[in-house]
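Structure, all two chains, one model.
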Amino acid sequence: MKQSKLFTKTRKEAPKDEVAKNAQLLIRAGFINKELAGVYSYLPLGLIVLNKINNIIREEMNAIGGQELFLTTLQDKNIWEKTGRLSDEVVNNWFKTKLKNGGEVPMAFTHEEPITNLMRNHLHSFRDLPVFTYQLQTKFRNEERAKSGIMRGREFLMKDLYSFCRDVEEHNRFYEDAKQAYFKIFKRVGLGEKTYLTFASGGVFSKFSHEFQTLSVAGEDLIYVCDQCHLAVNKEVLTEQPTCPGCGNKDLREEKSIEVGNIFTLGEKFSEPLGLTYINEKGEKQNVFMGSYGIGPGRLMGTIVELFADEKGLVWPEAVTPFKVHLLQIGVSAKVKEKAEALYEDLKQQGVAVLYDDRELRPGEKFADADLLGLPWRIIISEKALEAGLFEVKARTVEKAEVIKEKELVSFLTKK
Amino acid sequence: MKQSKLFTKTRKEAPKDEVAKNAQLLIRAGFINKELAGVYSYLPLGLIVLNKINNIIREEMNAIGGQELFLTTLQDKNIWEKTGRLSDEVVNNWFKTKLKNGGEVPMAFTHEEPITNLMRNHLHSFRDLPVFTYQLQTKFRNEERAKSGIMRGREFLMKDLYSFCRDVEEHNRFYEDAKQAYFKIFKRVGLGEKTYLTFASGGVFSKFSHEFQTLSVAGEDLIYVCDQCHLAVNKEVLTEQPTCPGCGNKDLREEKSIEVGNIFTLGEKFSEPLGLTYINEKGEKQNVFMGSYGIGPGRLMGTIVELFADEKGLVWPEAVTPFKVHLLQIGVSAKVKEKAEALYEDLKQQGVAVLYDDRELRPGEKFADADLLGLPWRIIISEKALEAGLFEVKARTVEKAEVIKEKELVSFLTKK
């Protein structure tokens, strides 16, 4: 797209009350807008990144048999009463609102209750199981503090998958599939190496649940990492000396980290009180055995910013960048404009996503904006380049530009 | 997809308190689930339809220069105070909630205020205008009654576009573009012929606003239709004898109709109180001139159901159907199964979206389900068909099946 048409402008300063690096940079670059503490709008560039993350998640959820649906924010309080979670004393971060007739309407902070209740219309026999459903839907959580930018919001997007199985064996098989799908997602968005499967507290039906923790100084969690088997333990479950649950290694590193995903064995915790049963092969009524699996796409986006951004601005991995190439037209002569325009069209034709900075600004401003926006590849079209028939192509993550012949430019970028 | 894998089941009866035909059929067919009156979840088949409608809208909004963003539900009450709309006496369908510290947080029933406020960071000069932004985002409206199914919900998806122009002339040019884009959308989803540009009450800055009304007995509006120029007038603006605003014709038909879209000239109604200004060519500060343009994708889906469904069930136009073909395997012999499976793979290879009913059910149940789900084309694979080398292909909207040779089947369907 042409940058002169993009309505968002960069800014030198983020709002004074914004302390998180991810939000500061994303606001300055025009990717998001702060509406309230912990409540952010996504502007065009930010929405492209978010949708790319969403689509990677979708592909991996579909690959393990997930069926997408879309539940609601407004909730029937009766079903939450049945599981004992309606009370503010049990769940301390509810947002609630009221119908005109005065009836209380809670706003979903998660969706175990409505999905379990809904499934009663669709699951009857062992032949109907297993079933895996997921959604990308907004959650509302009334956080006391919201100082981590898009990594912990009061209103935020969540991918939540729910599994419905006959028994713990069937459940365990899917749980492993989900674990592998999560690793694929983190790898694809560029967080693979720094993300650890982490043992956390389990709840009623299992000793542990599993988190996926990405090492970062911006993290709110503390984990103990085993370098021998790429596993970690969350500090919250430690009672004595940190020990690797994989190999028994006691020589673990303490690290700050961001929880980028979690998977839970729920067992019959929700199916029992809500009456989600099926008839097994012997004609007996059984509770459905459930699991839940969460990833926050916005939190992933914030984590990517925290990990890769540098002092000049954002740095996007190729898989989630809003555009692959930032084409900078330096100078306003007809010749430069014509060449930049032609290259822009050529790259688009080849399927390369390009942001073309056709604005009439000083070169220094264009370079600063390009660094702040953080697209992977920058190309400069200037008088000098045209005379030499050579173009400067620079990766966002290196200092030095490569010089490439005009006719080799498109193939250089399509191969990258 | 294989129907044995689809978790949703059809039902013979809709919930007793559901009076709208669209919701009754969509619930029975497993496309949606009722959470509360006016609050519906979208299940896999329903979500495919909704996303197809969303994508048609997106394409047409992008074609007129729209830039997509994603605003929030939770709102800063201060900006709504500035326009005088925070009060429940002014806006009678607010949902509001509270932060933990007690601060009131209204939930967006529309987004003029936040988008206008946000634009103050991005629009400064006449060179920055015009700008057109849109989103597909959930709205919350505290309706007293919610009896129209997905056509009028308390929580529902809305496409809302906002235009920002230098002056009324620039605005009027875009307003015409938007009008044409809306006609294209209604035509593409199959509602073109029955949808009328309708003059409705205008508000402060113009005598009229424009609605798009689709004729339907399920409609809540009354309009007067001019057959000479395919225009209509909403009853709400009539003071005397109905007269066509196009040709002056006084011989108009009264019709019930559904409002499927509306476009408004807002002028300076929001830019003035919120201080959204720009510097014009002469260096003078001016208020930005705005418009807003709404379509409810869920309401469109509900309207499609109301218009096309028959006594047997849903009927989907090709552009929004969840699958093009419903492939019914009748009988369970190895030969029938093998042939059905092969045809399923073949059609998928050719890019035809197929729902393959591979379930072990009686033929009557399969036929009834196929009618209820309403996919455009039904193919039957049975022993009889295999012996004859001929397949029955039936359009959902006709009684009689066509008989087609096996080798011509795929090309018949890909050409349709």
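The longest strand of chain A covers residues 253-267.
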